[in-house]
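Chapter summary example: a protein plus FE2/S2 (inorganic) cluster.
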Amino acid sequence: MEIEAVNENFQIGSIGSLLSGKQKKRGILIHLLQQIQEEYGYIPEEIVKKLSSKLSLSMSEIFSVASFYKMFRFTPRGKKLVKVCLGTACYVRGSKKVLNTLENEFQLKNGETSSDLSITLETVGCVGCCGLAPVTTVNDEVVGDITSTGKIEGLIKFIRKK
Ligand code: FES
């Protein structure tokens, strides 16, 4: 009952006045960072410099906000984004071997991008296809049941052709 009474009297418009200028800027900043990442695939430092002067926020404030969210990246990604699932179902079915083989094959460590920007190798918690474990995604395509050396080789061919 009390909560309803509070809700009845609460004016949505008053939220704006409760937010400080800094909070408003943060909200705008996050929206802009999402757009920038959509455009470039990551957050380039040059753009952060421009944002810094437009929003009157220091670059360190911008990086601090952006790095709080895992979705923002500060380095370019490769054309092919390869994500090896290390979630429990995939891990117990051998995804670590898949990762090690891909690292050796493409000379990349987890989280790295090739110098020609052709491939980024990452790991992921679970992609929701546990029944196909172990799973790797190549851009948005799921490759599952990578349970043998032959299947890992097939995955490598698939990545190269992509
Ligand atoms: S644990 Fe890998 S898809 Fe769920």
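Key point: Residues 85, 87-90, 126-130, 133, 135 surround FE2/S2 (inorganic) cluster (CB under 6 Å).
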